[in-house]
Amino acid sequence: MRQVTKLSHGWLFKEDFSDKYLTMRKSEDFRGDSFKEVSLPHMTREIPYNYFDEKMYQFISTYAHQLDITEHHRGKRVFVDFEGVMGYAEVFLNGELLHTHKGGYTPFAVELTTYLNFAGENLLVVKADSTERDDIPPFGNVIDYLCYGGIYRDVHLRVVEPTYIDNLFARPKVNLNGPSSLETTVFVNNAAPQSVNAQVKLKLSYQGETVATKETTATIDAAQETKVEVAIHELKNIKLWDIDVPNLYQLEATLKINGEVQDIYHTRIGFREAIFKPEGFFLNGRKLHIRGLNRHQSYPYVGYAMPERVQKRDADILKYELRLNLVRTSHYPQSIHFLDRCDEIGLLVFEEIPGWQHIGGAEWKEVSYNDVRAMITRDWNHPSIILWGVRINESPDDHDFFLETNRIARELDPTRQTGGVRCHRLSEFLEDVFTVNDFSHSGGEIILDTQKSWTGLDHQVPYMVTEFNGHMFPTKRFDQEERLMEHALRHVRVQDKAAKTDEIHGSIGWCAFDYNTHFEFGAGDRICYHGVMDMFRIPKFAAYVYSSQVSPKEDPVLEPVTLWARGERSIGGVLPLVILTNCDHVDIRLAGQDFGRFYPAREKFPGLEYPPIVIDHIPETGEWGSTWFDGEFIGYHEGKEVVRKRFIKNPVAAELTIKADDTQIYADGQDATRVVFQAVDQVGNPLPYLADFIKIELTGPGEIIGPSEVALIGGCVATWVKSTREPGTITIRANSTRLTSETIRIESTRHV
Ligand code: GAL
After folding, report:
1. Contact indicator for 321, 363 with CB cutoff of 8 Å
2. CB 722, CB 694: distance < 8 Å
3. CATH number of the domain to which 63 belongs
4. 215 and 120 together in one domain
5. For residues 561 and 547, what is the distance between their CA atoms, to the nearest angstrom?
6. What distance in angstroms lies between residue 144's CA and the mean position of ligand 1's atoms?
7. Span 115-163, pLDDT tens digits
8. Which helix (H) or strand (E) covers residue 542, if one does?
9. Which residue, judged by its Cα, is nearest atom 9 of ligand 1?
């Protein structure tokens, strides 16, 4: 039976590689050679928040791990599964090269079986080449993001029987008017030199209750992989997976030979029908306009090397804070934890292969073909994924190349459509969905161009805008108020236009979070300030364009785009005053007096379910040299006050707030949670121009990721607190030169 152990700890790491390391057989030898102990996920070198040389983490490094192999493993097959090593890896066991892998975003398995040493040590060494090798996508030219370095995802030791299940592809077939069915392909791998007769049994369950089972027998060929097809028909009363109620089913496949269980394989699936047609995108027969943002999987200080909880949190932010229905995993396959969470919460995903504008030579393309295969065979059971991106983002046409990436995708997964993101007009349409980055809007009248202007076709096709805004209007969270307003309005205008234009089936803005980038991009400080949230996932005003697209019954949103200051804007005042809200109307009080009632700009932005309120005229606020006053905004829904927001005329730094995403984490030396520190005024509003520094104090079994003395960036900063392997209470507080936060507690408990 399969045994899977996470290899998170006990890795020895050094920032170089030498052949000498391949002759070393014991961890002590590595320690003696100044290797230091690290845990996964790991980045080759921590980076500062900004203004660093991106070459600093791009080098060849060595990771060594002593494996715990005993007699118990004899007769079994032993693998090491890597979820992601940036960008080229060579894997050695006891000095022997067993495997090479190109591509930092795709998983790979290394079989150790016949190389294991049962009489002594088993030393696994990974040579990780995190340089930007131009034989591997996305490298070969400039790229607007960083690819960080190291073994930045989890690694597992997997022990299975000689005949085991390698993968399972489930194809739920939804019948919206009758019983559904489930087709599966079970990939059975047999190391034996002779074929075997096996039974494969499927068990489908929902919340622990068995829904259906099906058994089949098959001959498993000698020394290779055999595909066993098992289908379950007549599935009645199947609960659909949808964005509102994402019902998930558990699927278990049991492999038996001569009645003896060899392997049990688990996966999770959802029954849903997702299809782009020329007239729109349909989820379970219902037309759904897609509203999304692009996500890079990067974080301050440690790049990609964030654990499960932090990855999942991003999905929650996109779904519950930004109220999106889709995320594009720009520009590569992202963490499996992130995708798992998308399944669990009903967030649709457009996943794509690694690449950025550049197409390399034949060797490079081979890696790209493999990326398509690896992405699809890793992720094909996620109901959240509705589209495979099989073009290199924004690359020029390359007929043969993209014909082949499309062919591979369709052959491997006939249940999903392909897309491929382009930015050149009239590019060849080899995919099922025409996905295009339309950056037409630069503040003027033009919002999005027509479908025909991009496709050149005389008929309507499935069509989605996969990027807009971004570099057209980079905006920092602490930028001047007029810029923040225009940033928000550009998201309003494009989302509105896309939603009211029949031929556009969705629009995905650039982007969710600011990200570190190469010097050729961004603000020169290695940050692209294109997010509606910053790198710490703290909202800019534009975030509320998205947050407000939810019923006020669920979450009333009222965010006037202003710092409420007399002289912040050009010439002064706060006009035009844009209020991002889902309220039916908002009443404004100035200096304690009723000023008026204001309604959303429905005629102007009919595409948005909850358009903003735009106020052009408040007499007292427009002139330089007059007095200033407190403001109060009261939001109503169905005649009742649902939310109130106060602004004070004379803010001072009153409090340093501290807030953790979680009050409990696991004491596994890997888990982490975000802690946000924000300076606020007397009524709790942020103070974006407070340039103080804070000292973060932590006691107990935890560590701060990144520096513990940091400047507030736009009055606010966050850090991630990581557990150690000791359970206990972690306490955190921060002091600035002027303020001290409360002390908060995070319990770090054993994983059960
Ligand atoms: C696009 C590109 C993105 C990002 C964006 C900035 O061209 O696909 O990765 O660079 O521009 O707006």
Report:
1. no
2. no
3. 2.60.120.260
4. no
5. 13
6. 7
7. 999 988 999 999 999 999 999 999 999 999 999 999 999 999 999 999 9
8. helix 541-547
9. 144
Q: How far is the CA of 509 from the centre of ligand 1 (A)?
A: 10
Distance 607 CA to ligand 1 centre (A): 25
Q: Is 382 helix (H, G, I), strand (E, B) or coil?
A: coil
Residue 619 has pLDDT above 70, yes or no: no
Give the binding-site residues of ligand 1, using a 6 Å CB cut-off.
Answer: 144, 330-331, 393-394, 423, 437, 467, 470-471, 510, 530
Residue of 294, 510, 515 best suited for mutating to test ligand 1, as the one with most atoms within 8 Å of CB: 510
Sign of CA dihedral 115, 116, 121, 125: positive
Residue range of the domain that includes 722 = 655-749
CB atoms within 10 A of CB 626: 13
537 and 581, same domain (yes or no): no
Number of domains making up the chain = 5
DSSP conformational letter for 462: -
Q: How far is the CA of 475 from the centre of ligand 1 (A)?
A: 14
Residue owning the nearest CA to atom 4 of ligand 1: 144
CA distance 61 to 701: 29
Which CA distances in Å does 118 have to 69, 140, 160, 352? 7, 43, 17, 42
Measured from the CA of 528, which atom of ligand 1 is nearest?
A: 6
The reply to whether 276 falls in a domain is no
Domain end call among 128, 160, 192: 160
C-alpha distances in Å from residue 694, one per residue of 514, 700, 732:
22, 20, 12
C-alpha torsion angle, residues 191, 196, 197, 203 (rounded to 10): -10
Which one, of 669, 41, 10, lies nearest residue 336 by Cα?
Answer: 41
Specify the 3-state DSSP secondary structure of 285: coil
Looking at residue 310, which CATH number applies to its domain?
Answer: 3.20.20.80
Q: What is the pLDDT of residues 270-312, one digit of tens each?
A: 999 999 999 999 999 999 999 999 999 999 999 999 999 999 9
* 254: β partners: 201, 264
Q: What is the pLDDT of residues 624-638, one digit of tens each?
A: 677 899 999 999 999
Q: Do 38 and 170 lie in a common domain? A: no
Query: Looking at the structure, do residues 437 and 462 belong to the same domain, yes or no?
Result: yes
Average pLDDT, the chain: 96
What one-letter code names the amino acid at 171? R
Residue 744, domain member (yes or no): yes
**Rounded CA separation 601/613 (Å):** 5
> From CA 537, how far away is CA 543, in angstroms rounded?
10
Q: What is the pLDDT of residues 574-601, one digit of tens each?
A: 999 999 999 999 999 999 999 899 999 9
pLDDT in tens, 704-748: 999 999 999 999 999 999 999 999 999 999 999 899 999 999 999
Atom index in ligand 1 nearest the CA of residue 357 equals 8
- SS3 of 87-100: the string is CEEEEEECCEEEEE
List, in order, residues 6 or more apart from 603 with CB less than 8 Å away: none
Ligand 1 centroid–CA 521 distance in Å is 10
Domain co-membership, 178 together with 212: yes
* Alpha carbon nearest to ligand 1 atom 10, residue: 144
- Work out which ligand 1 atom sits closest to the CA atom of 331: 9
Question: 113: which 2 tokens?
Answer: 């079986």
What's 722's domain CATH number?
2.60.40.10
Of 461, 451, 406, 459, nearest in space to 426 by CA: 451
* Ligand 1 atom nearest residue 517's Cα: 10
Q: Which residue has the tokens 């495997």?
A: 99
Q: What is the pTM of this model?
A: 0.98
Statement: residue 692 has pLDDT above 70: yes
Flag whether pLDDT at 414 surpasses 70: yes
Is 121 part of a structural domain of the chain? yes
Pocket test for ligand 1, best of 424, 435, 467, 469 (most atoms within 8 A of CB): 467
> Which residues carry out catalysis?
394, 467
The DSSP output letter for 612 is: P
Question: What is the distance between the alpha carbons of residues 475 and 523, in angstroms, rounded to a whole number?
Answer: 10
* Domain membership flag for residue 7: yes
